[in-house]
Design goal:
alpha/beta, three-stranded parallel beta sheet, TIM Barrel, binds fe (ii) ion, 245 residues
């Protein structure tokens, strides 16, 4: 049997170079992320094993799929912080943010903003994964006018927004920070997203990297990507701002 057993790789702490993960879905049962405390603990232990020291958790805020409330999420976060400390998790839960989908309900959020910001500074936003939505540019502009700094989550995951698309360049000109997913670099979301992720980083457009960990499948993929030499190279050759969070 030993002959056929698949060798399980040990996690490699390559993400020590980043120190901080700023995008994951590990408050149990509030979105499509972790389903229970045990799953959160397992994922956090993996994040720690691949080198992360601190983590910001960023549940989805999305109309109508995840109608989360900022106060409720904050309370859950502080309870979780105690529970994971009791469970012996070594990684620090540095703070609570949100991943805000720019969707039909988003304009209301701009009117009376209560955003949970990463490191009390950045609003993490995402677009529809399937189609371009009207009015996105205006909403981004409105937010910036109100003084918010924006990070666009996984810019490589919008198939309608190619790397050579003028809108991509325009977002950078507007001062929107970009955060590709580290798992995109390992092909977790397919070849096209992988190609776009490398291109975005090569262009010098990625200020942050995030894991976007949802559950144990992502944690496994993270362990695999910690052995990917192309990813090591990216971490060696590029400076990211994760540590500043
Ligand atoms: Fe996410």
């Amino acid at each position: 049997m030993g002959l056929f057993r698949k060798r399980v790789l040990q996690p490699n702490p390559i993400f020590e170079a980043l120190e901080v993960d700023m995008h994951c879905h590990l408050v149990p049962n509030v979105d499509d992320g972790s389903k229970c405390l045990e799953e959160t603990v397992e994922c956090l232990n993996m994040l720690n094993a691949v080198g992360y020291k601190r983590v910001y958790i960023t549940p989805h805020f999305q109309t109508p799929r995840f109608e989360n409330d900022e106060d409720d999420i904050t309370e859950r976060f502080y309870n979780l912080k105690k529970e994971v400390a009791d469970a012996g998790v070594k990684i620090e839960l540095a703070g609570i943010g949100g991943e805000y989908r720019i969707d039909t309900g988003f304009s209301k959020r701009i009117e009376s903003p209560r955003f949970l910001k990463v490191a009390n500074k950045y609003v993490l936003v995402e677009f529809s994964l399937h189609h371009a939505m009207m009015g996105v540019d205006e909403m981004i502009f409105d937010l910036q006018m109100k003084g918010f700094e924006l990070i666009l989550a996984h810019p490589e995951r919008y198939p309608y927004l190619g790397i050579h698309d003028q809108r991509m360049e325009q977002l950078k000109e507007q001062g929107v920070f970009f955060q590709p997913n580290v798992l995109s670099l390992g092909g977790f979301y397919g070849k096209e997203a992988m190609k776009r992720a490398y291109e975005i980083i090569d262009r010098g457009w990625a200020e942050f990297l995030g894991t976007d960990t949802h559950n144990v499948l992502y944690a496994e993929a993270l362990r695999n990507v910690s052995h990917d030499r192309k990813v090591w190279k990216i971490l060696e050759q590029h400076e990211f701002l994760n540590k500043t969070l």
